[in-house]
Amino acid sequence: MTAIGFPIPEDITRIVAGLTRFVRSEVVTRHEKYAALLEDPRRRYGPDGRYVPAVVDLIQEVRAASADAGYFNLCVPTAMGGLGLGYLAYYVAWEAINRLCGAHHWLGTFALSHWAFGPSVVLEQLTPEARERALAGLVSGRRSMCFGLSEPGAGSDATMIETRATADGDGWRITGRKMWTTNVTFADWIVVFAVTDPARAAAKRGGISAFLVPTTAPGFTLQRVTLLQGDIGGVEGESTFDAVRVEPWQLVGALHEGFRIALLGVSLGRVYNSARAVGLARWALEKAVAYASQRVAFGAPIAEHQGVAFPLAESAMEVHAAHLAGLNAALLLDRGERAIKELSMAKAFSVEVCLRAVDRAIQTHGGMGLTNEVGLVHAYNTLRIINIADGTNEILRRTIFQQLSRGDLDL
Fold this sequence. Notes:
With 411 residues, the chain is α+β, with helices and mostly antiparallel strands. The chain has helices at 10-33, 35-39, 41-44, 53-69, 87-101, 128-140, 198-202, 258-294, 306-334, 340-365, 376-386, 393-405, and strands at residues 145-148, 164-168, 171-182, 189-195, 208-214, 220-226, 236-246, 251-252, 296-297, 300-301. Strand 2 and strand 3 (171-182) form a beta hairpin.
């Protein structure tokens, strides 16, 4: 049975079925074996707020095992060593992983190459030397990366970045500060965006370049871990570049045209977050429906009370619509369309209604819904974050209206 009225290509369904089997055998079993380490933040994080080495090792094990099994790079271009599947496969795979793993089995996040943490089309324009030095480790899952775009004064308007890369012989020196960089706390490489032509950047006509920098480079410093939602550790970080030397081989793409790469990454992030939201919401609704069917109050299962049943039905309608919107946007992107409006709608709608679905699942469970054991609050926290990540809902609405005002009125 499927609620989707159009067929997902057989090669995608077959590969994603194999990926879910892999997640059950390699991710779920690790969580069961190392539950005390992975589920207890007092053990998961060190005093500095970063993952302890044992957790980093488990993350690397999952990445490498998935790469060896042929799943990690399923959406990576073939020229980079991947299977070359497109946006639809990316969406379907991420939705399946999150529906299966829910909030507890979070190592599943590393079973597939995320655009900002591993190889993707973002790295398609690496120089030959950069490919030789970095790509093999990333494709194998033995190494990871992060995406350094946001700054203290440049969030939604990323063109306002102040990090500079000034010419130094045949290379550059990068100086500046980055924040909200996910994965920087244990990444091996960072793709950092810096102004290389201030006049062009000020006119919003380019002038920003991308560079691939090892996190061991002299002058690069992780200043602090950014703690979110009361947790004692995390993967977001703030870092500084103090005259970090970069060579010509570290330039990603054309000089002064790095912002195009940044936008490509953000678009991938919106596909990912749309799928992640739907997967987590489906996981939460399944838990809520099962609980409502077995929990008895006032002489009957609480599912028989409209106050419980109708909100879940409402969320089922909304999550189904979000699922269709995400699949449609991915199909348009695979067809070569820019799908600016459609992807913006899919991401904004998905993260909002799916957050509401998880909230309703919490309410259905009553006090149990607030416990760490059930995990719904962890899903809620994740979805609350991605209502902001890769374009806030307000920015997405602005983008949608801009497209409408330019005559793109197809709905």
